[in-house]
Amino acid sequence: MTAHSPIQIPLNKTKIIKGALGSVAFVAICTWILAFQPHIGNPVFDNILVKYGVTCLGIVFFGFTAFFYVKKLSDKKPGLVIDSNGIFDNTGASSVGLIPWDDITAFGIEGVMNQRFLIVGLKNPEQYIEMQTNRLKKKSFDFNYKNYGSPIAIGASTIDYNLSQLAAELNARLNNDTAKL
């Protein structure tokens, strides 16, 4: 990362394609379970209400993620832009847009299962939660805040960059005001 030039980090199209294919596969499996009602041999999972409920939720959830991934495939904009204004986040369904340097306190990394996230520490995290108008996005931000201390968690799978290196470089840039341009 050079100190005086904007950095554009592209979206990782390979991982986005894998996510889309995985989501479509889960929609197909849930649809098959709904259509054929296979016998599982477990009284809980053989309950028709459980099967319908879980498979319908699966179709809705994975259908939404498939839609998101397909939409991201056609996105020509970079996943992250780092410049003198701050960080512009265009990585996912809960992207926040511009995060000014003055709002950022630190960068960290958290992991859930096999997924890693860049956590953007904020001076006023509640402000970012409150400015969300979409209820699902607001819930997502609130969940991130309660679990990671910040509403903004940028998934490593959507960007084509080493997350540990990115966090270190962003912290160095944050701590060195002259590096912001």
What labels would you give this structure?
181 residues; alpha+beta; PH-domain like; 2 domains; 4-stranded antiparallel β-sheet
Could you describe the 3D structure shown?
This protein is α+β, with helices and mostly antiparallel strands and 181 residues long. The chain is built from five helices and seven strands. It has a four-stranded antiparallel sheet, with no helix packed on it. The longest helix is centred in the middle third of the chain and has 26 residues, at 48-73. The chain crosses the membrane at residues 20-40, 52-70. InterPro entries: STM3941-like. Keywords: Membrane, Transmembrane, Transmembrane helix.
The secondary-structure element order is: EHHEEEEEHHEH
**Strand elements, count:** 7
Structural class determined from secondary elements? alpha+beta
User: How many distinct helices?
Assistant: 5
Radius of gyration: 19 Å
Largest sheet: 4 strands, antiparallel
> Please, what is the average pLDDT?
89
Spatial arrangement of strands, main beta sheet = 1-2-3-4
From the 3D structure, determine the CATH topology of the largest domain: PH-domain like
CATH architecture of the largest domain: Roll
